[in-house]
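hey so i finaly got around to running the thing on Tyrosine recombinase XerC from bioreactor metagenome. pasting the sequence first so u can double check i didnt mess up the copy paste, my clipboard has been acting weird all day
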Amino acid sequence: MVVEEFIDYIGIQKRYSKRTLHLYSDYVKELREFISPEGDDEFLGELKPQVIRGFISAGLESGLSSRTVNLKLSAISSFCNYLQRAGKIEANPVKKVHRPKSSAKLPLFYTENSLANYLSNEVENGNFLSLRDRTMVLLLYTTGIRRAELASMNISQWDKERRVIRVNGKGDKEREIPVTEELDKALKIYEAEMKEFYSENRYDKLFLTDSGQPLYLSFVNKVVKRELSSVKGFTGKKSPHVLRHSIATHLLNNGADLNSIKEVLGHSSLAATQVYTHNSFEQMKKIFLTAHPRAKKGG
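ok and heres what it spat out for the 3d tokens, dont ask me to read them lol
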């Protein structure tokens, strides 16, 4: 059926991530069922702006956020572009559908002091698993890599001589990230301990689970949450992605330019990186209002 063909296409030709494939499949099938409960390809003839507006309105009325609705529209638009190229429809109806405005949401981030305090704590001597967890958090923070990039990282991606880490990002795009002196030292200590702890590493992975298996995404989440919950100073969500937001914000606050941060994070466009300028402005605004003599006096 055409929906399944579309998902195969964006998976093989476009190299979309598994998560995106899952979401796009769900959203397009949801639209198909909205138009034709029988689930056949006859719904293609009903792909019109007014029908898609009805589908989106139903979602908003059910309590979906503007962000989720816009994600659905993106999936449907991609599907319609595919159909148009295949000659199954004449035009993309989504182009005539108004997208609801999403409220601006600034990325969460941890303070430099909070992370410095966490990283200053000594790891219990002889406790390899604690050392592994600390090294994972340090790597996530200092490089800004995604949790999936960490989970899939091979030992060979760490170039010790050049002190860089090669990362395979979204769409199999490779980028190189410099390794700080602190991280370089930590990785060397960790690697030596790792060879003693695991009898073998047949997966060639930089990090493994307690039982020596490749990492999975929820495992990375649990490690970060457990580590950051062990010290004071971390409020709100404790996740790998907030560590990524944190290093981006800290780099910007310390004078790094947006293009350099974009390359480190592996963003495809500068627009995705520019969101961190809002965090920096909010920090500057807070400092300004705290220090300004007239602001203190209220006039």
